């Protein structure tokens, strides 16, 4: 029987994509969520995490607290997950992001210091330390796969989701959050999942973070151009600048939270994924035009 791969947060966008990728590669999968149709567990508790991870060979940590509760809840969640992975004797693959670096000049590489001073960046750095310290101490094997803003089928809780794709299909203005003319690395969900599963398969991935492969950086104007072409008609587009973010944030707490990391929106935000490619060979990444078309199709079916 194939090794058991456990996906925590399996009803979220990344978790669901990882489940699909594992299924495609023929693995035995346990899809864990607090209230979904698969294996139900509250992994914020040690007992729940141990139950969720039991008998696993690899555990993919794709669960996270609500965006506004990261600082309060992410470290405790991570400690519970580590305990579950340790009890199972499994390997942990963390679905990570790029917040740890803070504002930088030039493309981001994995050897940059974790100098973020904003609360979300600091807590993500703390989470990474907890995981890698557990690896270094021999409690678990672990690796981290970092991605930027993502889009794709199932991607609804993201700045590249409803405000672009659902809006475009409804004939409304598709809005890019940030400066329309700054290059930005964006990841396509199935590519994120493929990268994470590869990290789970490869022993040489252990003990460090990796930037997952992505298509070439695009500006907001270019990305919205792919959307315009895919919908096949006139499309109203706009950028959501800092002033508008502050205004909307007065009554929308999710938009308000974006102000903390606005440096990701008003200047180049580019991730260098060459270390992953050098270590694991050429990686297939979905061209943005193809990914945009598939995402629009998903939104049509699920609107």
Explain the layout of strands and helices.
Elements: E1 4-8, H1 13-24, E2 28-33, E3 39-40, H2 46-53, E4 58-61, H3 70-88, E5 91-96, H4 119-136, E6 141-146, E7 149-151, H5 165-169, E8 174-177, E9 186-188, H6 189-201, E10 209-211, H7 220-231, E11 237-240, H8 242-249, H9 253-257, H10 274-280, H11 288-301
Parallel strand pairs: 1-2, 1-4, 2-3, 4-5, 5-6, 6-10, 7-9, 8-11
Describe, in plain words, how this protein is organized in 3D.
The chain contains eleven helices and eleven strands. The protein is an alpha/beta fold and 303 residues long. It has a domain of 187 residues: Rossmann fold, CATH 3.40.50. Helix 4 links the parallel strand 5 and strand 6. Helix 2 crosses helix 3, helix 3 runs parallel beside helix 4 and helix 7 packs across helix 11.
Structural class: alpha/beta
Give the spatial strand order of the biggest sheet: 3-2-1-4-5-6-10
User: How many runs of DSSP E, i.e. beta strands?
Assistant: 11
Percent of residues in beta strands: 15-25%
Key traits:
single chain, alpha/beta, Rossmann fold, 11 strands, Nucleoside-diphosphate-sugar epimerase, NAD(P)-bd_dom_sf, aldehyde dehydrogenase (NAD+) activity, Epimerase_deHydtase
What is shown here, in short?
The protein is an alpha/beta fold.
């Amino acid at each position: 029987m194939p090794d058991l791969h456990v996906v925590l947060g399996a009803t979220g966008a990344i978790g669901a994509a990882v489940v699909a990728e594992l299924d495609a590669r023929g693995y035995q999968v346990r899809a864990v969520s607090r209230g979904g149709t698969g294996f139900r567990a509250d992994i914020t508790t040690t007992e729940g995490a141990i139950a969720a991870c039991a008998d696993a060979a690899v555990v993919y940590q794709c669960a996270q607290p609500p965006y506004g509760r990261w600082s309060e809840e992410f470290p405790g969640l991570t400690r519970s997950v580590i305990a579950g992975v340790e009890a199972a004797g499994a390997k942990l693959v963390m679905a990570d992001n790029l917040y740890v670096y803070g504002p930088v000049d030039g493309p981001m590489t994995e050897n940059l210091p974790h100098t973020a001073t904003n609360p979300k960046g600091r807590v993500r750095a703390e989470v990474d330390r907890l995981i890698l310290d557990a690896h270094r101490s021999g409690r678990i094997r672990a690796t981290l796969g970092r991605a930027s803003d993502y889009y794709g089928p199932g991607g609804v809780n993201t700045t590249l989701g409803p405000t672009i794709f659902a809006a475009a299909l409804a004939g409304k203005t598709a809005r890019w959050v940030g400066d329309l003319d700054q290059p930005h690395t964006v990841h396509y969900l199935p590519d994120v999942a493929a990268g994470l599963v590869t990290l789970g398969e490869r022993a040489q991935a252990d003990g460090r973070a990796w930037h997952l492969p992505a298509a070439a950086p695009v500006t907001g104007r270019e990305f919205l151009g792919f959307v315009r072409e895919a919908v096949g008609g006139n499309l109203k587009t706009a950028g959501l600048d800092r002033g508008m973010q502050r205004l909307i944030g007065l009554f929308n707490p999710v938009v308000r939270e974006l102000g903390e990391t606005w440096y990701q929106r008003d200047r180049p935000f580019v991730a260098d994924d060459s270390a992953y490619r050098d270590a694991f060979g050429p990686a297939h990444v979905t061209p943005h035009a193809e990914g945009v078309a598939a995402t629009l199709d998903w939104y049509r079916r699920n609107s």
